Amino acid sequence: MGFDFSVFKGSGVRLDEAYVSWLVQEQAVEANLYYAKLWSYYRNECLETGVRQQASLAGGENRRPYRQAQEYGLPSRITGMRSSFYGGILNGSEAEGIQRKEVVIENDIAWRIDGMVDFLFGKPVLISSGAKEAERAGQIQRILQAVLEANGGASYLQELALLGSVYGFVDVIVRMGEEVFGVSDSAGAGPKTFAEVLEAAKHIMLEAIEAPRSLPILDEDNYKKIRYYVQHFRQQHNELGSGEDGVQAENYRGQKTGRQKESHNVEVLGAEWWQRYRDGRLIGEGRNRLGAVPVVHIQNMPLPGHYEGQSDVEPLIPLQDELNTRLSDRANRVTFQSFKMYLAKGIDGFEDRVVGPGRLWSTENPEASIEEFGGDDGSEGELAHIKEIREALDKTSGVSSAAAGIIKGRLGNLTSAVALKITMMGMLAKTERKRQSYGKGIAEICRLVLRGLDAGGIFPTRPEEREIEIYWPSPLPENAMERLEEASLKVQLGVAKETVLKELGY
After folding, report:
1. Last residue of some domain: 428, 448, 464?
2. Are 128 and 153 found together in one domain?
3. 14, pLDDT greater than 70
4. Are 464 and 481 within one domain?
5. Bridge partners for 286 per DSSP
6. Which helix or strand (DSSP H or E) is residue 434 part of?
7. pLDDT greater than 70 at residue 107
8. DSSP state, 341?
9. Minimal CA–CA distance to 200: which of 415, 455, 421, 390?
């Protein structure tokens, strides 16, 4: 693709052009197919059918002009299609002799993922500095809070948790920008007032990189260490047509008049240098004054021996497929029960007679009869099976239907804090595991931000002042008075007042 990595010399390991080309052209394609499947099962988006698929529906029972992504996992006897392994529902082939039947999709994956995200980052976290002086610690915390708020605040952390939950991990690129490194070529010549420091901090961008874009080059002896970071993505550009003013952006309906062009972008980040390519051409490069690869890797849940973490979606896919299959089977049976079929014996021309209220038929054949048939009632075994599937989804995800009720404020009879914790034991345990991983990631992001502000001469800090601790609020609904009473007892028992206040979110 026209790469030239001769400028990457500071990391001690040569960056090979052929290897990066293989990552972009082959490895990225295979990875994207896998990650696209995970995202499709979470979103379950409605996909418009093409001409070929629409034609296949003409004789079927279900003539909807769309298909849902989770139909990928349904058997051919229901969809009338054979899906390719990774191609999705629209890239399959028509199953000969099988008509499409009723399709019922109940996306149990999405609300479980969203519930876990709400449990993890539904309430603001407290970022605490390790600086010993209270005033200094307060300044650092204000800076970090300003950076976080500039990037979306709590919603940004929820975005990280969602991407990590679906894909198994999420990466964050810390981009300092010209407002930090472009103030002056010499350290110490940056802003002097704290207000100027805060203003510069607001321009630091924390770019969330979803898994399909991530192509890390890891240390041969340590899979947790990133030597170089490569991200590859496609981008849509509008090529606008020319008008009287040279550019014609849109018409009165707001429709673009120009053509869309897709570009292939590759960015390579090293500890000392960075480059950016578009369609094989170098469009930008520069020195990385941070002195470290500006990427923080966050695993959703650790997966020993792997760079990628454990996705919350992947283990739920087989159960989701089974649930959708059984719900579709039940829907088809209901359809046959609602529209009864008749067998007429000994009645000439029965197929031409109108069936309806008030109709009178006659025949001279004394042995004539009309029988109805088709469909049978559901069994208790079927209902029990569907219930067992839902319970398996609860166990596998750690998110039960009770959790969904609590998240939505429907507490029911669970008024005791102890009862809530017992009911939510699985979800609380999983949340605690995630706190370790995401908390470590947030702290590392903060350290890189402070390191960058120090390198740019904006806000000098010592290494010990960049130590960060994350305090998490309880995800469960709580009584304010009970929390205060508990805090008072902790102080009486000798717990530091500052620690207690941080636990309360102050």
Report:
1. 428
2. yes
3. yes
4. no
5. 274
6. helix 425-455
7. yes
8. E
9. 455
In whole angstroms, give the CA distance from residue 392 to residue 474: 26
Q: Determine the pLDDT at residue 248.
A: 47
pLDDT of 54 over the 70 cut: no
Distance of CA 70 to the CA centre of its chain: 16
Task: Provide the domain count of the chain.
Answer: 4
| pLDDT tens-place string over residues 258-310 | 566 788 899 999 999 999 999 989 999 999 988 899 999 999 998 888 999 99
Cα separation, 212 vs 32, in Å, equals 5
Domain shared by 205 and 323, yes or no:
no
Per-residue HEC secondary structure of 353-376 comes to CCCCCCCCCCCCCCCCEEEEECCC
Phi and psi based region of residue 46 (left: phi greater than 0; alpha: psi -120 to 50; beta: remaining): beta
Residue 266, both tokens:
């590759």
Cα distances (Å, whole numbers) of residue 88 to 39, 40, 56, 65, 386:
12, 9, 16, 16, 25
pLDDT one-digit tens code per residue, 108-136: 999 999 999 999 999 899 999 989 999 99
pLDDT tens digit string along 220-249? 888 889 999 999 998 877 665 554 444 445
3 state SS for 21-73: HHHHHHHHHHHHHHHHHHHHHHHCCEEECCHHHHHHCCCCCCCCCEEEHHHHH
Q: Is the dihedral of CA 317, 321, 323, 327 positive or negative?
A: positive
Highest mean pLDDT among 78-87, 423-432, 490-499: 423-432
- Confirm if 103 and 78 have CB atoms less than 8 A apart: yes
Structure-block tokens of residue 356: 């309806």
Q: Which residues span the domain enclosing 326? A: 317-344+374-428
